[in-house]
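QUALITY CONTROL LOG
STEP: pairwise intake check
CHECKER ROLE: data steward
CRITERIA: each record must contain a sequence immediately followed by its structure tokens, with no blank fields

ENTRY 1 OF 2
RESULT FIELD BELOW
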Amino acid sequence: MKNKTSKAMIKTKRLVFKYRKQLLAGKVIAIDPSCISGKDGSKPAYAVFQDGVYVEQGILDVKYTPLLAIRLQGIAECIRTHLTNVSAVIVEDTPYIPIRTKAQAVKSGKTYMNAKNIASLKQAIGAIKAAFQYGTPVIDVNPLVWYAIARQNGWTITKEDSDDARLIGLSVFKLLTETMTGEKPWLRQRKKQQ
């Protein structure tokens, strides 16, 4: 595992361990964020887990409008209306810098994200987090983390928004299982640093 992924994995494991009670007892929503870029573009997706068990997945059906602020308000309103009584939220985080060139994206079949795309997605993540009730725990999951877990477990990554939301949630519950059993060297490491 690469150093960047390893650091992100440790950070995620700490959050998962911290919020283990909320993850295991209640309704957890995993979200694959999007700022709804284009009429036929990506939309935010969710997966619902109840008491640690996968229940359903879907798309937050927010209509496209050219104004980003209106789209973000639509995302928040949709969450407040349809995703209620939540004990914890899992959200895919985004990179801080562009993640590949256009040529790399075409070659790999992955998404090209420039600085403007990242900034819009960060705003969408903010709107998503703010839409939930005050005090609801949020676990940010780096894409490198859930991709690595999906590959390790042989899960198919389809790049369908709702499938991604389900895999993001499943990866957190996989980490939860690991943190609840066996040694926790990532906890000891933190104590040594203090």
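ENTRY 2 OF 2
RESULT FIELD BELOW
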Amino acid sequence: MSDARVVPDVGHNLPPVAEIGKEITHHAHLWTTNVGKGDEHKREIMVRAYRLRFFMEDPDTRLSVEGLLSDAKIPNTERSRPFTRLLNYAFRKADWQAEKSRVSRWAWALQHVWNQEPRPAVEEVLQFIKDNGGDEKCAARAKEPRTSSSGTVETFELGSAIPEGLFSDGKTRIAGALKLADNKLQFVCRKRRSAEVLSTETTPAPEQPTANMGA
């Protein structure tokens, strides 16, 4: 008998990212060709996209996922969202591409699951979406301003006084988005800080200097 030990291949203990990539592509192809089982393949696509998203959080597997997307020439820009990129990867070889609105809705629905604290496990993602109203409602909720466990969301109208304490520690930029509400343009500010009511009173007009009539 030989005493030689079997040396495992490099990367043998890493998650099967490439295999999941093949599976999600396969189900996307079947989704476009088998209408009768469309929902079944959609579920398989979303579960695998969510699983790959977890791998993107791990330094040991992130490069594997990014390599997968890069080889498929899936763009990665400042505005690219991980779930959108993963779904575009899935459909890249399909007989016809899923509508952008559909991919966007699925991506936002998955993002809503991802935003939860604690974050649902892979095997819980489909049930969570179902229990929370389905794709459309989950997608809509993901787009809403949200409050994290470490902060709050402030909203104030443009042209009003900047709430006291909004800028701190020498910062000159605040993350947020413009929103139209009641025909008024508002800036929804995402600021991590303890919750408190901030002033939105209109800044008073500066007093006009008066001539010194007694001179």
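INTAKE CHECK: passed for both entries
DESCRIPTIVE NOTE, ENTRY 2: The radius of gyration is 25 Å.
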